[in-house]
Write a structure and sequence with these properties.
It contains 3 helices and 5 strands; from the N terminus they run E-E-H-H-E-E-H-E. The chain has 84 residues and is of the alpha+beta class. It has one domain. A 3-stranded antiparallel beta sheet has the order 4-3-5, with helices on one face. The chain has a two-stranded antiparallel ribbon with strand order 1-2. The chain is globular and about 40 Å long.
Length: 84
């Protein structure tokens, strides 16, 4: 299982394998590598100026549709800004 300390979001190797199209045995390492290479965005919800519930996405449009763009803060592992 992979997630963020203090957040409810998490995922499992079988789901990552399906999502990223990799063998289940390589899923966690592939996921972490992609997060650390900034290939997957980290989204946090924003409410009252506080951020919470970080999660990872490869589809910002769907995430914004689900939570509302104004309620999301996009981050990357390296700290680079989201430019869209």
């Amino acid at each position: 299982m992979v997630g963020f300390e203090g957040g409810a979001w998490h995922t499992h190797p079988d789901l990552i394998a399906f999502w990223l199209g990799v063998p289940e045995g390589n899923a966690i390492r592939s996921f972490i590598d992609r997060v650390m290479r900034d290939e997957l965005a980290i989204i946090t919800s924003v409410n009252g100026g506080k951020t919470f519930d970080p999660q990872v996405t490869d589809d910002l449009s769907s995430t914004f549709d689900a939570f509302g763009r104004a309620n999301c803060l996009v981050r990357y592992w390296s700290g680079k800004p989201h430019l869209h």
